[in-house]
Amino acid sequence: MKVMQRGIMKVAPGKMAEAMALTEKLMALSSRYGMSTTGARTYRPFTGGGDVMHTVVMEIEWDSLTEMAAFFEKMVADPEYQAQMSQWDVLLENHQVELYAVML
């Protein structure tokens, strides 16, 4: 079963450039552990309510929950990833993750 992971980040005012730079580093690190960066998409909403100027949406499609779980097991054990997580604390006001089953 294919799974789409969607992360919605509310970036603190004045921190968007730093958040995008850290996102690039995170994507480079993620690709080392098997995440397909070509399938990852990053969006910024135009409309829809809320704070569109400080919201970033990322979507990644996985072939299965097993593949996604194996990826995250490797990532959370990486010291570089662990160091990055503390940097996000000052950049984000909120981070929400959603998982969707792909319907065909």
Structure keywords:
104 residues, 4-stranded antiparallel β-sheet, globular
In spatial order, strands of the major sheet run: 2-3-1-4
Low-pLDDT residue intervals, each spanning 5 or more residues: none
Beta content: 25-35%
User: Residue-averaged pLDDT, rounded?
Assistant: 89
Number of strands: 4
Question: Which structural class matches the secondary elements?
Answer: alpha+beta
**Termini Cα gap:** 10 Å
- Please tally the helical runs, counting DSSP H or I stretches of 4 or more residues: 3
What percent of the residues sit in helical stretches (DSSP H or I)? 25-40%
Give the ordered list of helices and strands: EHEEHHE
Shape: globular
The largest β sheet comes out as: 4 strands, antiparallel
- Rg value: 14 Å
Description:
- This protein has three helices and four strands; from the N terminus they run βαββααβ.
- The protein is α+β, with helices and mostly antiparallel strands.
- Strands 2-3-1-4 form a four-stranded antiparallel sheet.
- It is globular, with a radius of gyration of 14 Å.
- The mean pLDDT is 89.
How is this fold's topology laid out?
Layout: E1 3-11, H1 16-32, E2 41-43, E3 55-62, H2 65-77, H3 79-88, E4 92-101
Antiparallel strand pairs: 1-3, 1-4, 2-3
